[in-house]
């Protein structure tokens, strides 16, 4: 029996959660990338038969607990993101890097819109479109982090 090395998935989620709570200067908080969204998109594109909406929901729930957000905020937003990622993973694999970057921006933008909607329901409105900055920074990180994650997942034979 071969090891499938799924511990790497868990380790990447733990690192993403640590980056989600890493202290930043007050002026930079709006620009924090959504590392968990980046990982959900990556793992769904890499292993759509194993990683899905449930995985994204659990990661979002963990992010809610770690960041102190209202329980279910990130879980719902990441589940929606995972649903759209699962619908389009075959096309996304065929995209060139620039198209992937734009698609990640759209996906994370949808996630941020859902999260902002939940915040508005909770009485914490965000002025303007500031909540979309993480979509841009996450999309800009996509071409930098995904080749490394893909290399490591291939090297460790994550299945």
Describe this structure in words.
With 159 residues, this protein is mainly α. The protein has one domain. Helices cover 70% and strands 0% of the residues. The chain has six helices and no strands. It has helices at 7-20, 35-46, 53-67, 73-94, 97-121, 133-155. Helix 2 crosses helix 6. The two termini are 13 Å apart.
Concise synopsis of the structure shown:
The chain is mostly helical.
End-to-end gap:
13 Å
Total discrete domains: 1
How much is the average pLDDT?
Answer: 92
What is the approximate shape? globular
Q: How much of the residues is beta strand, in percent?
A: under 5%
* Unreliable segments of 5+ consecutive residues: none
Computed over alpha carbons, the radius of gyration is 15 Å
SSE pattern, N- to C-terminal? HHHHHH
- Tally of alpha and pi helices: 6
**Which structural class do you get from the secondary structure elements?**
mainly alpha
Mind summarizing the main beta sheet? none
Measured as a percent range, the helix fraction is 55-70%
Question: What key attributes describe this structure?
Answer:
single chain; mainly alpha; 6 helices; 0% strand; 159 residues
Write the layout of secondary structure elements.
Blueprint: H1 7-20, H2 35-46, H3 53-67, H4 73-94, H5 97-121, H6 133-155
């Amino acid at each position: 029996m071969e090891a499938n090395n799924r511990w790497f998935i868990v380790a990447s989620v733990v690192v993403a959660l640590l980056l989600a709570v890493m202290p930043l200067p007050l002026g930079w908080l709006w620009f924090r990338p959504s590392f968990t969204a980046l990982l959900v998109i990556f793992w769904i594109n890499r292993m759509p038969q194993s990683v899905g909406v449930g995985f994204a929901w659990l990661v979002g729930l963990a992010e809610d607990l770690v960041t102190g957000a209202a329980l279910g905020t990130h879980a719902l937003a990441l589940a929606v993101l995972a649903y759209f990622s699962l619908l389009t993973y075959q096309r996304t694999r065929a995209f060139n890097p620039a198209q992937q970057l734009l698609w990640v921006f759209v996906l994370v933008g949808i996630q941020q819109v859902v999260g902002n909607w939940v915040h508005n329901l909770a009485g914490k409105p965000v002025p303007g479109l500031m909540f979309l900055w993480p979509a841009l920074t996450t999309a800009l990180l996509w071409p930098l982090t995904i080749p490394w994650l893909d290399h490591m997942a291939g090297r460790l034979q994550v299945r």
